Amino acid sequence: QISNFTIQQKVNITTGIGWGNGLCVGNTPVVGDFPGLCLQDSPLGVRDTDFVTSFPAGITTASTWNRALMRARGFAMGQEHRMKGVNVALGPMMNMGRIAQGGRNWEGFGADPFLSGEAAYETILGLQAGGVQATAKHYINNEQEWKRTQESSNVDDRTQHEIYAHPFMRSVMAGVSSIMCSYNLVNDTYACNNNKTLNDIMKREFGFQGFIQSDWSATMDTLGAVTGLDLTMPGDITLGSGTTYFGQNLTDFVLNDTISIQRLDDMATRIIAAWYFLHQDEGYPNTTVSSFDLYNPLNQEVNAQSDHYLIVREIGAAGTVLLKNEGALPLCKPKNIVLVGSDAAPPTSGPNEYTDQGGDPSGILAMGWGSGTDNFTYLVSPYEAIQARARVDQTSVFWDFNDWDLAAAGNSVIGMEAAIVFVNSDSGEGYITVDGNAGDRQNLSAWHQGDQLILAVAAQNNNTIVVTNSVGPLIIEPWVDHPNVTAIVWANLGGNEAGNAIADILYGAWNPSGKLPYTIAKSPADYPAQLVTGGTAADILSINYTEGLFIDYRWFDAQNITPRYEFGFGLSYTTFEYSNLAITKIYPADYAQTDLVQNWEDGGATPIAEGSTTALWLHMPAYKITFDVANTGALYGGEVPQLYIHHSPSAGEPPSVLKGFTNVVVSPGQTASASITLSRYDLSIWDVVRQGWAKPEGTMTFSVGASSRDFRLNGTIPA
């Protein structure tokens, strides 16, 4: 395809046309018979246009622990991007929830690399099956918003491989089209200029064949092309500068042999190959997105919504976690109920009150703020959904949406059969500050004095049910053990159908099956890593990942800190019993690289070679674990059995490491069989000396259970 292109044409393929100069947030020009690319946010829908779905956020999707739902959401989003003529969707986001206050954690998949990796893998398979190119972002170590363009995330090699790079590796295994390098520095070198992370880990070790694009104006110089950057976005050095590090500068560097023509060919080939790989050369829809003129009629030309509200509502319910329930739920035709708190209500002036949702929420919180958003076509609040159910049940409904009058709120709940209090907590991308929160959250408390609101209600009603819509963990100690707080429903961020999904949970139309994708601590100080703030305009902050492998629950386990609710925790309206654990070895298929399998079995490390980390032999199932799950309660329900590996102390691993999960649905009195496979990769650690994956010495054991601290079955990996 590019053999007859001039140097300038090849350079043009790699250079965006500049901020605001096209229909999408990123655009590349027409070059010969290549029509150029439209690159568009976001990880939860098509940004800056009309007639698209607002899907549940990444954190809600992760809370389902359900691969089929992750895939279905990706597929629906892929279809919408394609229908709108978007070539490259700027998602999914898979930075780790290392910092509980991290502003963009809600866009990602939580605080565990395995769960994040599975969610990324399924989302990408879905997006690309829908026809759009997916982008794994932000590579790598962009775990906080504060000074994100002026901070060096300092991470050791083993931690990088086992934690932060893992979801990106799974993205490559899913066939992802593009990787987006991040704003920050990694070990004192900018991520978009980082030979180790781009050329060595991503392209050599993971064998990535697609293209690496910059985050918007994250390109630092023309020589980024040598260190692995293939496409500069949106093209200009700073947004709207009209200058570029690529373009003529790249042309000059190729002409004077500073950058080889072979490298330029590689850059252009990767970009065009990805376009062919998704069959975008075959009658792809015209772009009907207008990012910089929202009132352009073009935005309303194509309705891409289809029936995707169905998957939105299902994930909203499946991604809701029941944390506490003392007989309060499900509701059964209550005589009267009262809804308290603005988070139960529709936003005051429509669902899109603020650009990029960047403002203090006046109603239900259904997504965070920043570029990771899209425009709601509509937003169903709990108030509407519960009212509709009340009509059927002939329940009297009362409400008080004023968060600030605690006396009135307390008085409104007297004599009610149930008082449901709704609270939220918001965050987003750092270019918008909301109520003093510069992207990252200033604290882990509910907004709008939510703690006091709950206590005011619980003081006067002995059946107080709390519903949260939060971007991440909250400290709930002020009220979690209050005797009148009878249920806690952790509803995350539900998108368009948020209210309906919450009602489905409250009334038992969906039996809760979600599990926490992070730890809820008793104190902010219990978390292993804290937000790094401060610094002058000129300073590069150092953010040292000193906790290493001990992120989130791994730290709590190792330090013997009791959390309020542990990673992987979630209740049901029924109960489950586990039994009949067995593990069998799976012998490699004929086509496996048996010499490398044997080398691994003998304690050898994976070779230093192209694609060594994504090699098939390393990821093929090596062990099969089977067990039974019985429903010992009275209601049909779903459970998420989780598998944690325990290495011998000499391996230097955390006490428990998630390496598998599956889903079972079981009727009362019935038993379902379940299975989880483990690969050699799942049992390996990164050997920094040999620079490969190796089986650590000593006996490996494992547990299967209902959370990271609720183990029901225990076994040993056969030698």
TrEMBL record:
Reactions this protein catalyses: Hydrolysis of terminal, non-reducing beta-D-glucosyl residues with release of beta-D-glucose
InterPro entries cross-referenced by the UniProt entry: Cellulose_deg_GH3, Fn3-like, GH, Glyco_hydro_3_C, Glyco_hydro_3_C_sf, Glyco_hydro_3_N, Glyco_hydro_3_N_sf, Ig-like_fold
Catalytic class of the enzyme: hydrolase
EC number: 3.2.1.21
Keywords: Carbohydrate metabolism, Cellulose degradation, Glycoprotein, Glycosidase, Hydrolase, Polysaccharide degradation
A biological-process GO annotation: cellulose catabolic process
Origin: domain of life: Eukaryota
Annotated ranges, domain Fibronectin type III-like: 639-708
Signal peptide: none
Protein name: beta-glucosidase
Originating species: Suillus plorans
